[in-house]
Amino acid sequence: MPEDSTRTFLILTLLRVSIFSLAGLITFKLLMKHLDPTNKRKANAAKTATELLDRLGLKVGKELSEYELMIASHLVDPSSIPVTWSSIGGLGSVIQEIQETVILPIKRRELFSNSQLTQPPKGVLLHGPPGCGKTMIAKATAREAGCNFINLDLSILTDKWYGESQKLAAAVFSLAEKIQPCIIFIDEIDSFLRSRNVQDHEATAMMKAQFMTLWDGINTDSNTTVIVMGATNRPHDLDKAILRRMPATFHIPLPTLSQRVDILKLVMSGEPLADNVDLYRIASQTDSFSGADLKELCRNASLYRVRDYVAATQS
């Protein structure tokens, strides 16, 4: 009898300890969840990501971690991208080269399966002056190649909690591999992956190093179709290790005279245009204008037309 009583007492004691431990663990998790300032952001990102994944028909929602869901909230449906090659004026030679070196190996993999040298590049750099169409080219490339498109917001990778930035950087590549073919687009890439120096913050240096290590990881698997595409107007600020990982480099210069004529024709297509408007003359007087500058010029001219009409009707 004493032995039975002792055994019962021990079992009840262990049961009480287990219940209290479980209750304490649940309370601790709830408390940490309540105190986590990023919890609401993570919940909103997870909701957005789930909706995007369902819309894209990607059945990976349950397989994704909370960090991958945060990155997935920046996914763009390639079919919904409103930019095509016909939307870009004056860059025919660059577009043709991108079609041949980037898009063709993705869309026709069977033609290149027996060679390691003809696989699509794992890194593409678009560089040139602002307003010359670098971002438009990246979007059109994703649309034409039929790739899932992660428009990576660099602010999402910076987290004040130690280790969180590294987890988010890892999630970028793990998500891209799960939803491949995929293009990871980083606009103003020089602000993130500029040349390293001793003045870099420890967390920033670690994140850069991990990003490059993970990038090398996708290079080792020839069957992985994940491309990191960056755009910058300061290519010389980029780390040399980053430039090595971006073998496909395309310079997007300021448009020439004939290219400015093409851009003006594209911008003014569908717009009411007087018979005496000479686009060639406008193009010849806008040397050093970018494509964005030309579009803004046309927008201002259109606004002046409306303003003059309103002023005439009110007088």
TrEMBL record:
<keyword id="KW-0547">Nucleotide-binding</keyword>
<dbReference type="GO" id="GO:0005524">
    <property type="term" value="F:ATP binding"/>
</dbReference>
<dbReference type="InterPro" id="IPR027417">
    <property type="entry name" value="P-loop_NTPase"/>
</dbReference>
<keyword id="KW-1133">Transmembrane helix</keyword>
<feature type="domain" description="AAA+ ATPase">
    <location>
        <begin position="120"/>
        <end position="258"/>
    </location>
</feature>
<keyword id="KW-1000">Mitochondrion outer membrane</keyword>
<dbReference type="InterPro" id="IPR003960">
    <property type="entry name" value="ATPase_AAA_CS"/>
</dbReference>
<dbReference type="GO" id="GO:0140570">
    <property type="term" value="P:extraction of mislocalized protein from mitochondrial outer membrane"/>
</dbReference>
<feature type="transmembrane region" description="Helical">
    <location>
        <begin position="6"/>
        <end position="32"/>
    </location>
</feature>
<dbReference type="InterPro" id="IPR051701">
    <property type="entry name" value="Mito_OM_Translocase_MSP1"/>
</dbReference>
<dbReference type="Pfam" id="PF00004">
    <property type="entry name" value="AAA"/>
</dbReference>
<dbReference type="InterPro" id="IPR041569">
    <property type="entry name" value="AAA_lid_3"/>
</dbReference>
<comment type="similarity">
    <text>Belongs to the AAA ATPase family.</text>
</comment>
<dbReference type="InterPro" id="IPR003959">
    <property type="entry name" value="ATPase_AAA_core"/>
</dbReference>
<keyword id="KW-0472">Membrane</keyword>
<keyword id="KW-0812">Transmembrane</keyword>
<dbReference type="Pfam" id="PF17862">
    <property type="entry name" value="AAA_lid_3"/>
</dbReference>
<dbReference type="GO" id="GO:0005741">
    <property type="term" value="C:mitochondrial outer membrane"/>
</dbReference>
<keyword id="KW-0067">ATP-binding</keyword>
<dbReference type="InterPro" id="IPR003593">
    <property type="entry name" value="AAA+_ATPase"/>
</dbReference>
<dbReference type="GO" id="GO:0016887">
    <property type="term" value="F:ATP hydrolysis activity"/>
</dbReference>
<keyword id="KW-0496">Mitochondrion</keyword>
<protein>
    <submittedName>
        <fullName>ATPase family AAA domain-containing protein</fullName>
    </submittedName>
</protein>
